[in-house]
Design a protein that fits this description.
Length: 440
């Protein structure tokens, strides 16, 4: 480590420095080259990316332009459709305006006509009120005249019906010599030897043996209307056992052509009430009234069949016994009482009336029945009640101040349909055979 050692060391250091510099320059050169290469690569990559982006951008622009064109075309179509729709709307609006003008003219004419029609209706309503009042007056007058006509025929009428011959009977041996349209019947006495000697009886109407059930009811039918006009009516069959009372009142139930007064009267009652349903309200009930009858009940009925069922119940309870005149003679009276409550729907007037349909027990003399014991007692009660009924009819026909309704339960029950403005029809039945002369 002498003095010459220091320069040498410095030289060595300088050489190292130069070598280092040289190395550094070379590295820097390489670095620059690499950097340059990297830059070019980067530029190439960027160019490629730019190119890709450019292509993608162009594609996007193309898609946007395509979409824009499609939307433009779609909007153009829609605009055209809207324009067409607007045109149609304008046309429709013009048509509507035209129609509205036409309707306004039509409505104006119709309103004018409506005013005229309303005036016509007002006048018609006023006339209708007058016509209605006149019609009501005419209806009431017609009702009064109709029932006055019935009263002129007699509030108490007596009809006579001759029973037809029964199979096996001698039609030549008859006591009925003649019947006439004017109500006469000639009865001959079979015990007298003098020929052409007759007793003449006069009735309101006489039905010969050939008269049908329908012909008999035709004369009775007007009284049924009177019941629905507020007048009580009593129809009863009177005569000896076997003279045809039950046949006249009930008839066989096999066919309508042979129906009796009961069935036909009830049918007529319901038919008329139905035909008047717009003017009158009717309530029809069946039982007895005015007198307390044990176990009697009031039944509301709506048809003939309802009443017939009640009648059948009554017939089953009717007393029947054997006598010399009939093996199954009715030993009691059959009484059907129909209550009618009516109300005029137009003026509110109300009324109540009764229809009595009665099949009386046989009226023959006690000794002719051959009855004894209970049957004799029954016959005596029957004849007593029939005698009381006869007294009432006679008193009413003579217009007596006192009518003996309370002399029997029968006349007490019938009081509502006997006397006053009530109408009574007595159907006397005659048997034509000689054996019945005394009863006839």
């Amino acid at each position: 480590m002498h003095g010459y050692d220091l320069p040498l060391e410095n030289l060595m250091r300088e050489g190292e420095v130069e070598a280092y510099k040289s190395t550094t320059v070379e590295e820097e050169s390489q670095t620059e080259k690499r950097t340059e290469m990297d830059g070019k690569e980067i530029l190439l990559m960027k160019d490629k990316e730019i190119e890709v982006m450019k292509i993608k951008h162009e594609q996007q622009i193309e898609e946007i332009e395509t979409n824009a064109k499609q939307k433009e075309e779609h909007l153009s179509t829609k605009v055209k459709e809207l324009e067409d729709h607007v045109k149609d709307m304008r046309k429709s609006s013009q048509l509507i305006s035209k129609d509205m003008c036409a309707l306004q003219l039509k409505w104006r004419d119709e309103v004018s006509n409506l005013g005229s029609n309303l005036k016509y209706l007002v006048d018609a309503a006023e006339n209708y009120a007058k016509v209605f009042a006149e019609n009501k007056k005419l209806h009431n007058e017609n009702k009064i005249l109709y029932n006055e006509l019935q009263e002129l025929k007699g509030n108490i009428r007596v009809y006579c019906r001759v029973r037809p011959w029964l199979p096996g009977q001698n039609k030549e041996a008859t006591i009925v010599a003649h019947t006439s349209e004017d109500g006469e019947i000639w009865v001959s006495n079979p015990s007298k030897q003098v020929k052409n000697e007759y007793q003449t009886f006069k009735f309101n109407k006489v039905f010969g043996s050939s008269a049908s059930q329908g012909q008999v009811f035709l004369e009775i039918q007007p009284l049924i209307r009177s019941v629905l006009d507020g007048f009580s009516v009593c129809i009863f069959a009177y005569g000896q056992t076997g003279s045809g009372k039950t046949y006249t009142m009930s008839g066989p139930s096999s066919g309508k052509q042979d129906w009796g007064v009961n069935y036909r009267a009830l049918n007529e009652l319901f038919d008329i009430s139905h035909s008047r349903r717009n003017s009158f309200s009717y309530k029809i009930q069946s039982t007895s009234d005015g007198l307390v009858i044990p176990e009697a009940t009031l039944h509301l009925v709506e048809s003939t069949s309802d009443v017939l069922k009640l009648m059948e119940m009554g017939n089953q309870n009717r007393a029947v016994g054997s006598t010399a005149l009939n093996e199954s003679s009715s030993r009691s009276h059959s009484i059907l009482i129909v209550h009618i409550s009516g109300s005029n729907l137009k003026d509110g007037l109300k009324f109540k009336s009764y229809l009595h349909l009665i099949d009386l027990a046989g009226s023959e003399r006690v000794e002719r029945t051959g009855a004894t014991g209970d049957r004799l007692t029954e016959a005596q009660y029957i004849n007593k009640s029939l005698s009381a009924l006869s007294d009432v009819i006679v008193a009413l026909s003579r217009k007596s101040s006192h009518v003996p309704y309370r002399n029997s339960k029968l006349t007490h029950i019938l009081q509502n349909s006997l006397g006053g403005h009530a109408k009574t029809l007595m159907l006397i039945h005659v048997s034509p055979e000689v054996e019945s002369y005394s009863e006839t």
